[in-house]
Specification:
The complex is a heterodimer of chains A (113) and B (114).
Chain A (H helix, E strand, L loop, with lengths): L3 E4 L2 E5 L4 E7 L4 E9 L6 E7 L4 E4 L2 E6 L4 E6 L8 E9 L6 E3 L3 E6 L1
Parallel strand pairs in A: 2-11
Antiparallel strand pairs in A: 1-3, 3-8, 4-5, 4-9, 6-7, 7-8, 9-10, 9-11
Chain B lengths: L4 E3 L2 E4 L5 E6 L6 E7 L6 E7 L2 E5 L6 E5 L5 E5 L8 E8 L9 E2 L3 E5 L1
Parallel strand pairs in B: 2-11
Antiparallel strand pairs in B: 1-3, 3-8, 4-5, 4-9, 5-6, 7-8, 9-10, 9-11
Classes of the chains: A mainly beta (113), B mainly beta (114).
Chain lengths: 113, 114
């Protein structure tokens, strides 16, 4: 079954601290992996897209890693800010004509002052 | 530039009723996809349309249908509403259907079925 699992389910950190979110997937055939940020009641906003040949990709204070062999990805947030409080969703795109996006349930991050 | 716009933003319907949700993609984008996000869950794929043709369908009952118009806007219709259809419905647009194409999401339509 094609699944994307994320951990932890929720996380509380202090402003200025770093954190790492985890994603494991069993999606096949694999095309690419994406991380999205979703504020409550809003649509997801893309942070990174990585194909199987890419190990690391950064977007400002966000750095995503991908290990296609172990089917694991992580999202590292550096020097967290209050505005980072949101749900972070790991998404895997299947290859093929339909190219469905398979979403994880997300990690809810709360950054406290 | 306007992003993906969805209407209405919020909607309350009664069980058994029918609902139509609307999506306008980013200008120049020809692909529109629909997702259902139940509270506390990740979005689930419903449909993808490209150039007015259905390109993909998720595991949803036939009560769900959609179409794409010549201007690439799209409508999602849900008939015979159930309480379990209450969710945030998201529309995403892309320039085309390539594997690494970015998907841009609208703010969603919050549907509540009572």
């Amino acid at each position: 079954k094609n699944q994307v699992e994320q951990s932890p389910q929720s996380l509380i950190i202090l402003e200025g601290k770093n954190c790492t979110l985890q994603c494991n997937y069993t999606v096949s055939p694999f095309s690419n992996l994406r991380w999205y940020k979703q504020d409550t009641g809003r649509g997801p906003v893309s942070l990174t897209i990585m194909t199987f040949s890419e190990n690391t990709k950064s977007n400002g204070r966000y750095t995503a890693t991908l290990d296609a062999d172990t089917k694991q990805s992580s999202l590292h947030i550096t020097a967290s800010q209050l505005s980072d409080s949101a749900s972070y969703i790991c998404v895997v795109r299947m290859s093929g004509s339909q190219g469905n996006l398979i979403f994880g349930k997300g990690t809810k991050l709360s950054v406290k002052p | 530039d306007a992003g993906v716009t969805q209407s209405p933003t919020h909607l309350i319907k009664t069980r058994g009723q029918q609902v139509t949700l609307r999506c306008s993609p980013i200008s120049g984008h020809k692909s529109v996809s629909w997702y259902q996000q139940v509270l506390g869950q990740g979005p689930q794929f419903i449909f993808q349309y490209y150039e007015k043709e259905e390109r993909g369908r998720g595991n949803f009952p036939d009560r769900f249908s959609a179409r794409q118009f010549p201007n690439y806007s799209s409508e999602l219709n849900v008939n015979a509403l159930l309480l379990g259809d209450s969710a945030l419905y998201l529309c995403a647009s892309s320039p085309w259907t390539g594997m690494n194409t970015e998907a841009f999401f609208g703010q969603g339509t919050r549907l509540t079925v009572v």
